[in-house]
Fold:
Amino acid sequence: MEKKGLNELRRLFREFYVSKEHYAAKSASLIPKDDKSLLIINSGMAPLKRYFAGLDTPPAKRMTTCQKCVRTGDIENVGKTSRHGTFFEMLGSFSFGDYFKKESIEWGWEFMTKVLELPVEKLWATVYLDDDQAEELWQNVGMPKERIVRLGKEDNFWEIGLGPCGPCSEIYFDRGEEYGCDNPDCKPGCDCDRYVEFWNHVFTQFSKEEDGSYSNLEHPNIDTGMGLERLACIIQGVTSIFDIDTIRYILDGVLELSGVEYEKEGTEATDVSVRIITDHLRSMVFMIADGITPSNEGRGYVLRRLIRRAVRHGKLIGIDGTFLSKLSEKVIQVSGEAYPELVEKRELIQRIIEIEEEKFASTLDQGMNMIQDSIKDMKNAGDTVMNGEVAFKLYDTYGFPMEMTEEILEENGFTLDKNGFDESMARQKKMAQDARKSDDDEGWKEAVTALDLPETIFTGYEMLSGKSKVLAVQGPGGKDRLSEGDKGIIYFDETPFYAESGGQIYDIGFIGNNDGLEVVVNKVTKSNGLFAHEVDVKKGNISTGEEVQLFVDVKRRHLIMRNHTATHLLQKALRDVLGTHVEQAGSLVNDETLRFDFTHFQGMTDEELKAVENLVNEKIYEFLPVTVIETTMDEAVKMGAMALFGEKYGNEVRVVKAGDFSTELCGGTHVNNTGEIGSFKILSESGIASGVRRIEAVTASGVLNLFNEDEKILFSVAKSMKSTKDQLVPKAESLVEEVKSLNKELSGYKKAEMGDAAEEMIASAKEINGVKLITKEFKDADVDDLRNLSDDIKNSASNIAMVLASVNEGKVVLLVSLSDDLVEKGHHAGKMIKEIAAACGGGGGGKANMAQAGGKDPSKISDAFQVAENLIAVV
Structure:
């Protein structure tokens, strides 16, 4: 058996099944498509479920893949065992109603014995108890009967609920007696480590019915799965996935950077950290390449958890600063040829990792200190369980995933109150939900589903007015007639009014007839194909069955259309400037502004914002034709149309194209030419959630209004500074320099004053319980002033405790500072400040030698000083 690298094994598998007329599909994204049951793709078969279920037509009846997979169910065992990993690759061969058991077993045997040249005497197979056919087929290819083991339903029958299911046959490799147990009848199915299962052939031939019976499928399927890393272990003669050539290359990078020794006596804990970092690096690189970004929910949380877990273990083995982004290059080097998206997105991958590292590094030490303090308190109190609220604070304030806190506690012999954590999380979510509640619904607005009406025909793409028939009226008391002064809802057979959807706001306008009817349309919504027009009747009456004239507010609609088309240009510009990872996460288009939410891992720079703005304006000034194509979803995809992730589209869709620049699926209304937009100006860019940014912008008259407002402010500022608009900048610069000079002068006076005070304070310190205590109140000093003063005092005196206070604009700033010798004797500033600040109606915390806090009641400062004296007296 010749040793082969992991990349070569992947290639050999693919080429073998291509030679058997299999279509070689690329690995699907780790983000599941049309499958809400999965957070992340976790098996080779997962992306193909719709083919097996008959919901979609596969590209070929025979397929082969090497699928990227991530599983975190056993994350606590990663690094502790030789076989657990969060990222792995699954080799698979599949038949959708084409060949069956005979070909699957024959080709499997050929690949193992002829291509890989695995020793025949080392191969074993298991089959389902009743599967005589599979056993006979294994014997026919050369597997001795004594090396075929029949196992029960738990081991050799695949089924998930109702539907397609069937027996399976697993292939094992015998590692030798040295890995076995004392049982003379040891064979596959035994719990020892001698036999390694590496390839499973599932024969989907039955359908499980609701009554528990099994019926035969008309077209049986084949689904085989073989772990690439496990196969590599066998071929390369190693016992751990971390010793496979490609993974060992990454692991060696971790060792080189950290300088630690590996697999030496006494390095067990270090070895675990090295392996965790190695494994998590693979997962995070592949996840980011597939469009997953760190967040506090869903798959983004999985990614954040992996990155932050790796950061902590890096710190445990002595790696300082950010390091994962640098080591990610190792993953790209060994896997980039097979997965070119890693190379294409190298810069994005490394930047996202670096940003997440930096975010967590800034709070890691604080969080670890909090955990260690909590562990110390639990030890002193004889407790073994951490309060759930403490764990939630670590999560909410310091970014510690709950599972990480649990892991650290376990390392120290403690557990976590998970129920308490969940309750704290639920309380926070309820507060957020309550803040968003609205009670402005009117009681007479009945459910649209209660109406038996045909779907409304929308004519607003082509016209902004037209005749229509009233099909139903809803108003106070549920009557079918609205009179002057009434508010209500009207349904028509057809309408030019756009109903709010897809991020575009509704149309407004009015309704009239030849009899003087005046009805104002305030809002239009849509449900189940029915357009509900919310109206005020200003004059006359309107009843079911009448024919009236509908008029959309033309000026407003045109403004909306400008903003909507500009949003399409904005999305494409963002992808061009920032990268193709940018995807729409929401939008709002109205007549005044446009708002666009998008996935991105950091705030945009001024240069990036200017580049995006310039690109959008460039396309406006090119007067690109805006065309709408009604086509099938398949054709739209071939055209490269951008779709909103998670949005449901029918088979017939509208594709909106702005020249050759932008192509998107969209049901909204648009201008005929980009030149109609006039101009585009970004107002703001901000973060609204982890990994989601928001741009707000204006077009057309909105830009002119913005210019006029800015000009008004500019003239007002110039007037107040007794300057002209042209001289405003040098005048402002001169004033800034003058303020700096005055502040410097003031700072000098303050420093001299506080320096003089230091000597007096040391001389007047109270001695309590052998400790010199200084308490002093200042006015208008900030916390930096208090810190500098305490440092000066500690440099010239020992055995001293300081409690300093300052009042700024009615608020109290408190500082507790202790000399090093007092800290060594057990005094702790962080614990003292909590009780001291409480006397002033505030709170705070800090380290053993220095802590700060805020307070609400300046009149209670003397009480706070008394608390300090009491605390010193009892230590």
